[in-house]
Every structure is written in C-alpha cells, then in structure tokens.
Design goal:
By secondary structure, the chain is α/β, with parallel strands linked by helices. The protein has twelve helices and five strands. The protein has one domain: 3-Layer(aba) Sandwich (Rossmann fold). The chain has a five-stranded parallel β-sheet, with helices on both faces.
Length: 354
C-alpha cells in the first residue's frame, strides 16, 4: 500500500512539471483574492480504510500522555510540510514529526529550557489548496493523524485547536506550505494538453487565482483559530536549476515565483512571516533535493535530509544563505552531491549528442 502511494506521489512530480514547465513560459501573473472557487480534483487515487473510532483519534491527537508541554506547534500543508523525502526513508504512515517541522520543534525546545512543543502535523502529501477544505486526497493515509477519520485538513485543524485549547495548551506556532499540488487538477482535465495555448493559459490563470484565494483563506483560518500564534509560510524552491539541458529548466522558475508570491501575500495578510527557500537552494540542488538521485533522471523534487535542515535553519534564522546548523552539514553531503552532479553532466552530454 505504501509503495503504491509513493508511486502516486512521484506521479505528482512528473505530471506537474511536465504540464506547466513544458507548456508555459509566462511572466508572473497578478492574483486577486476576491472570489472563492473550489473544484474537485479529477485524479483517481487509492481509497484506504482504517478501523479506529473517531473519538479515539481525537484522544490520540489531543490527549496523549506524551504531550507534556503546554505549547503546541501545528503544521499544515502538503508533502513538503509533511517531511516526505523518499519511500525508503518512510515508514508510512507516520505522524509527520520529521523534516523541517521536527527540526524546528527541536530548536524551539532549546529556546525553552528543553521544553519541546507538542508537534501535531496535519499536512497531507499531495494536498492542494482545494483539497485542504475537503476529503478527496487519499494520501492522507500516510499521516497517522487521519487514521479512522474522514475530516478535511481544515476541519481537523479546527478540531485540534479546540481540543488543545481545552487542555490548556497554547497554539504558539503554525507553519504552512502548500501550492504545487493545485496544478494536478489541470493535468487531469480531459485533453488539456491538446487545447490551444490561449485556452491552456486561461486555465492556468484560473488555477493560480484559485490558489491565491485559497491560500489567503487558509492563512486567515489559522490566524482566526490562533490569534497569538507565530504563523510561518514556507515557500518553494526550483530543483531544476541544476539541469540547464532539461526541457523543464526554462520554465521552472516562473512557476515557483508565482507560488511564492501567493504565499508571501497570504503571510503578509495575517501578520505572518514568509520564508523564502528558493535563494538558499539555488546552486545546491544536488545536495538539497533528490532531483539527481538514481535512477537518473529522477523527478523526485522533495528535499533530502540536508535540504530539510536548510529549510529549518531558514525558519530559525531568516536569510538567503541557509547557514548555521544547515550550513555546517553541507560538507557532509558533498561526496554524494558531486556524484549526482557528474551523473547530471553525463545526462546533459547525452542530450546534446542526440
């Protein structure tokens, strides 16, 4: 089951970039948040069922004896927020106390006398800003917080906040990362790739507008539920910058720029903070992502363990360099990175030869 889910998650990478990077080369678009549009994704995905009483899930999230701290950290979003890397780095399902979320929580403990916050990661691999408000995303089965429950991420967030508050816990930190999966719905539209470019661009623009509207709504929901929380929106990066011969190379930055502009606006609207990861990842794609992993080329754009260290460090110490703890670990990843760069060069040479 986990292996099958992983294949679907990697399909996200392939379909998303092929549609938008191969077919669109447009400057960043303007976005408005004046209307609400919600559409069902056409993707056919696995249905997974678990037998756990709903009340038991609420207790597991809100009343675990392991939650000793009075401070709670909630993560919202997609696979980046969930901490997904590769299938081999599972296990699945898990509670998402990993990736930049786990690392940031560890750092928060150092700032509070070793008192680590209660980490509740509600992110779902493959989640879009549309499915955030419904239950259509089956990858929710990768997150143990959803076992036995048929609630949207939005609904479970609201319920989790209420339960934590009833226990006397304070929602002090909320991180959000979402956006790229919105474009899967475009991939699943019948004959989308056969449409005239003007119609394709119109659909793309509508999808970006929907993302902008929904991102604002997600951030506003977080602020309304936790008025005093530190809300942090984590941006996206361009893993294809290391592959200048790739057909994806010319367009990747355009899509990332649009998603990050939307995330920045959502954060600003609720007095939150936007964390730009794109500058830190630039020039370090081989070390910070799985884009060059075997078999080559691999379209797994998720961060490596080192990449998640970099993101966590940017959350801790904002800035373009990603130094400190993450920077100190770069040398440890260099041998593998050099190997991946050599493979990239071989692949690029093969493309040129063809």
């Amino acid at each position: 089951m986990a292996e099958c889910s992983a294949k679907h998650m990697l399909r996200y990478d392939r379909v998303l970039v092929r549609i938008f990077f191969l077919h669109f080369a447009t400057p960043p678009l303007c976005h408005s948040a004046t209307s609400w549009r919600s559409t069902q994704s056409g993707e056919e995905i696995l249905t997974m069922r678990f037998k756990m009483p709903f009340g038991a899930l609420v207790v597991a999230i809100a009343g675990s004896a392991a939650l000793a701290s009075n401070s709670t950290y909630i993560s919202l979003g997609d696979s980046l927020a969930f901490g997904f890397t590769t299938l081999s780095e599972g296990p699945f399902p898990n509670n998402g106390d990993r990736g930049y979320v786990g690392l940031y929580a560890d750092w928060l403990a150092t700032q509070h006398g070793g008192d680590r916050p209660n980490v509740i990661n509600l992110a779902i691999p493959g989640e879009s800003s549309v499915s955030f408000f419904d239950t259509t995303q089956a990858y929710r089965a990768a997150n143990t917080n959803y076992i036995g429950v048929n609630l949207s991420q939005s609904q479970l967030f609201q319920q989790t906040v209420a339960a934590q508050t009833a226990m006397g816990h304070s929602i002090d930190t909320i991180t959000i990362s979402i956006g790229p999966d919105d474009f899967l719905a475009v991939a699943d539209q019948p004959d989308f790739l056969n449409l005239p470019p003007t119609q394709q661009l119109a659909i793309l623009g509508q999808t970006l507008d929907t993302l902008a509207t929904n991102y604002v709504a997600i951030a506003a929901e977080a602020r309304a539920a936790a008025p005093l929380a530190n809300i942090i929106v984590v941006g996206d990066y361009n893993p294809y910058a290391i592959l200048p011969q790739s057909p994806l190379y010319p367009f990747a930055g355009v899509l990332i720029d649009n998603i990050n502009q939307i995330g920045q606006a959502a954060a600003d609207g609720v007095g939150g903070r936007f964390v730009d990861t794109s500058a830190a990842f630039a020039g370090h794609e081989a070390e910070y992502t799985h884009i060059l992993d075997e078999p080559f080329p691999n379209e797994n754009i998720h961060p490596t363990a080192l990449g998640y260290q970099v993101i966590a460090n940017l959350i801790i110490v904002p800035g373009p360099g990603g130094v400190g703890v993450a920077g100190a670990m770069v040398l440890a990843g260099m041998p593998g990175a050099r190997r991946r760069r050599r493979e990239a060069a071989k692949w690029q040479s093969g493309v040129v030869a063809k």
